[in-house]
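Holo prediction — adenosine-5'-triphosphate.
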Amino acid sequence: MDEDEFRKQFMKKSVFKLSSSLDQSYVPEKLYCRDEDIKTLIYNFRRIIEESDQPSINCLMTGKGGVGKTVTARYFGKNLKTISLERDVNLFIEYYNCINFNSKSKIVRELLAKYTHGSGRGFSDDEGIKLILSQLIRERSYMLLIIDEIFRLKPDEILALLDIAETFGHQNAKLSLIIISRTHDWMIVENERILSRLNQKIELKPYNFDEAKQILDYRSELAFKENVIDDDLLEMIAEIVSEHQNMRHGIEILRKSGLYCDKEGLERFTPEIVREASNEVYPTFRGDVIDLLKDQEHLALYGIVRSLMNTDESYTLVDEAYEEYQVICENYSIDPHVKMSFRKYVRHLDELKIITSKTVRIEEAQRGRHKEIRLLDIPAVKLAELLEGLFEKKFMN
Ligand SMILES: Nc1ncnc2c1ncn2[C@@H]1O[C@H](COP(=O)(O)OP(=O)(O)OP(=O)(O)O)[C@@H](O)[C@H]1O
Ligand SMILES: [Mg+2]
């Protein structure tokens, strides 16, 4: 491509009005179909704004993947902040996702760094929390922590967070929590003691057809120019959303169809484009988790993917994947890590549920057993495409 051609691509018309409104982290101005859940949150947390002794409150939000837990919590946080400003209440709202903050210590350190400007090194978690709480009291401020994917913390860490008011005294704990988890994951960590620390449990139900349609109407209006998408196509997508009980699927279809139109120079969606985009979406696959991986984990995952593409089996083995990984590292001029580290990355990918691995006894293998690695939510070829796109940005400069 030469510069003229490059420029020409920018002159092309786009179907998007605001493509960033379809990003995962985007919080829309209006949130439809979650009125009851938002009201429950308001009912629980308004005391922080209105009462002078500002109690400490813990709420749990659960629900299936893609039902809107994260967006609802962030929407609530954003608007509560506005109200607090209007009422002269000094409220901080912090959002952490345990995919990257996978221990209580990491969260406490981050808070320390941000609010007390210390590194937090050399402090125990409890000492750290105490410092943060004293700072809040000194400043007459209050903190609402939103902790997403909380099941990645150990149950005793979750309990310790929910227990802050008990541990440090209610009058000292100017801090409340909204914790979020998929219902299924939450089952694993839930126990009597944790339950007894919750003021409220909110279970978000999947959207039905009409709700999905209303949300898609609004989201497509934000994202696209007029007449890009017909009503009957929105109905088609709403059908898919309510069938899979996953709103993320619908948003992804909108995004992919839009990108396709732009690339092909088309001005509007057709049923074929939507159908094709829908086939490309893997509703349980979490692209956001992949984005957060470290370089070496990306490379290890690509090794697994490549070795899966080379075999007729539905699984691959650590040794095979490691070989591919070494070749890949060489291609990108990166020093490969030793096999023991590679095994660690595989374990981490397993913990994140990107892959599943299980040890199987077999007669032929050297030590009588081997570890079978499978992909969970997406075919190897598709994941390969995604990783290659990512590597292009990451390693090719
Ligand atoms: N009521 C709504 N209005 C507008 N957009 C919504 C609504 N509910 C969900 N969405 C959109 O659907 C997508 C999925 O929602 P979200 O990420 O909040 O789901 P989740 O329940 O947190 O899923 P997961 O368990 O996989 O993290 C997001 O793009 C979000 O913006
Ligand atoms: Mg979420």
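READOUT: The longest helix spans residues 69-86.
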